Amino acid sequence: MTPDTEIAPGPTTSETYKAGSPFPQGATWDGDGTNFALFAEGAEAVELCLFDRSEDAKEAARVPIRERTNGIWHIYLPDVGPGQLYGYRVHGPYEPEKGLRFNANKLLLDPYAKAIGREVQWDDSLFGYTIGDEAEDLSFDERDSAAFAPLAIVTDPNFDWGDEEKAPGISWHDSVIYEAHVKGLTMTHPDVPEDIRGTYAAIGSEPIIKYLKELGISAIELMPIHYFLDDRHLQEKGLHNYWGYNTLGFFAPQRTYAASRSHPADVIKEFKEMVKALHAANIEVILDVVYNHTAEGNERGPTLSFRGIDNKAYYRTVAENERYYMDYTGCGNTLNMVHPHSLQLLMDSLRYWVTEMHIDGFRFDLASALARELHEVDQLGAFFDTIYQDPTLASVKLIAEPWDLGEGGYQVGNFPVGWAEWNGKYRDDFRKFWKGEMGMHGDIATRLGGSADLYERTGKAPTSSINFITAHDGFTLHDLVSYDGKHNEANGEDGRDGADDNNSWNCGAEGETDDPEINKLRERQKRNFLATLMFSQGVPMICAGDEIARTQGGNNNGYCQDTEISWHDWNLDESRKSLLAYTSKLINYRRKHPNFHRRSFYERDPSVSTQEENVRWFRTDGQPMGEQDWAEGGWMRTLGMYLPGDAAEIRDAEGTPVEDHDFLLVLNAHHESVDFKLAEDVAEDDGWSIVFDTAKPDLEPSSLRLENPSVTMEGRSLVVLCRPRHERKKKA
Fold first, then answer.
1. Which architecture, in CATH terms, is 1-157+219-266+285-422?
2. Which of 167, 164, 166, 183 is nearest to 175 (CA)?
3. Can you name the residues that pair with 190 across neighbouring β-strands?
4. Residue in 110, 322, 348, 365 annotated catalytic
5. One of 299, 401, 562, 662 is an active-site residue; which one?
6. Does residue 365 have an active-site annotation?
7. What is the pTM of this model?
8. Which residue of 46, 106, 292, 668 could cross-link 713, Cys pair, CB 3.0 to 4.6 Å?
9. Is 401 annotated as catalytic?
């Protein structure tokens, strides 16, 4: 394809074109014109391609870029402003075995694009090699991809943030995170106007914000909203990349989540309006970000952006044969965090979302991949060093998914100070415990206390542990107690996809059932998991929809299900309304009592009997747990944890020591009822009330006064007892 006009800029002193600046990268409008800057260190020539605003967006002009500074090609175009569609053609050698994949026939997306002006349309011309050629990706394809490639658009960054002077700034120990999908949460909500359902505008709407506030959460963690692609093979099967872990643009919000699509740049405004509305309600916004790989895939993937701009700079290639990529992600490639420019891209993206979009934190997908300097995960890698010294990122929340798919990639507990982690061990231990596995008492004591085994040794706090039972990846809470095995037939992979080891238990029947006893047990198990989550030290994270018993019909890998399988069903029956009310009661009760979210670890290991009343552990007969009980009590499935309200670790939001109520948390994973006796020195002060009993969901906090020093617990139940400090002081 030859554009209608080829424009060759004159000298840098020309009134028409200027040299411009290498920084900032991307397209930057200053009110008079636009500066374009693209890093392409190995390129021999770069052309800026301008497209018209016709329905099929034809390439109207190519502008050779003459200026290059430290590998960045740059030019300033007067009179070019917001709304201009553009892309790049980058010239250089095509030698895949050397890691070089330049092909000027391929129109390339600006890695710094702030908005997407045209979506990708899958076509064979998007690939840098001739598909079907015997040499595969070693061949060279001469077809032009401009008619099908995604296009960037010049944007106007101006936005009125109004009265929003600062972010909510909620401390870690007061946080409750709600992991949600923009579309899934809002697509069928009856109180959200139909024309904005499934969008940023819906997340920022009054019905959703009211729901989040009443539930009691402090932060919504949005699944990927960076510009991502629908995989070609999924589209061919009539499926979609619903989760969005397939990023191509690290600065641009996903356009399909915008209600205002008449102008592509309106996506940014709508996203900012969402953040502004959530902040006004004192709710933080955390983004799930995918900086470990891109949507270009392996050596057989398309050439859409990074691969054609500077393949070796952006991707980790195999040293022995640079035709291939190091794949620590299972997605075909891994971003090259060893190269300073790839690291700069990541940091610029993070800073942009904090300074321009007012984001409060990030959850890093497969974060171990970012820490690989050469092969092994390096805790002091360049990525962490750079994060540490950046003042813009110093105050935001940083959460690692502390694993990837490479050797040695499971790094739970090994991320540096300043990082919180998804605690996969917390999830696994409590799933096993409530399923009824014996010998878990030591593990659950450690998890209830904030996982000191993982975090205390490096000087971290309990808030380093993001506690969760379920997340987007895997069973929902309802399915966790309803299915022994996965049921992923709708994904079209003959059940090969998704995890096989779920530590789930169907409570006696696979899938939905009319058996009232099984359903009663399932409801109690849901309450057990949610209560455990809320009364553990650390930061609780709820997978959106668990509070209303969302089901995926046993599908534990809904990544490709942009359907009712993944969307929330807001048509709540009585049992689902009851679970929602119970979850809200748990969250709001936890928030009122700092004893459940202490700022530091208990002073002693749970395996050691202690006279210091920071925490105490008890057997069912009221006797303290001794060393022999911890070491040999493999039969135990019931445990009591006493949390005195005058422990030194209890502090208010300013860090001042405060007193709270005394609490006794008793967990019984045995299938039979158990009489749990209170220890004499704990029971003697009286004043105890049962505030939560998962076997009695309608119990109101403090409504059931304990008349004798024992509690009869139903099988598989959790009880929380409370004694206000003034009751204890009266006795004293």
1. Sandwich (2.60)
2. 167
3. none
4. 365
5. 401
6. yes
7. 0.96
8. 668
9. yes
